[in-house]
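Support reply, case 0932

Customer input (verbatim):
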Amino acid sequence: MLLNEKRKLTDKEIIEKGSRALINELGYSGFLRFIRHSEGVSNEDYLKLESEMFSDMTLDEIYDRAKEHWDENNK
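Our regenerated output:
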């Protein structure tokens, strides 16, 4: 019996659990690459996009925002 057959999971729960599993296995950059590829936009340079997104932030700021987001969404 599959896990979600024991407990009916919502689509949101499936996406959250799947995302966490991918991040644990692939890391954040691997997760982003996977998502971008699966959405059919893999022809863009994800490193360039990532660099543009975080160009004005320090590593500590990125970590703090990620932790804050996690804490807010996992209460």
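We compared this against your earlier run and they match. Two observations from our side: The chain has one domain: 9-73. The first helix runs from residue 3 to 6. Please reopen the case if you see a mismatch on your end.
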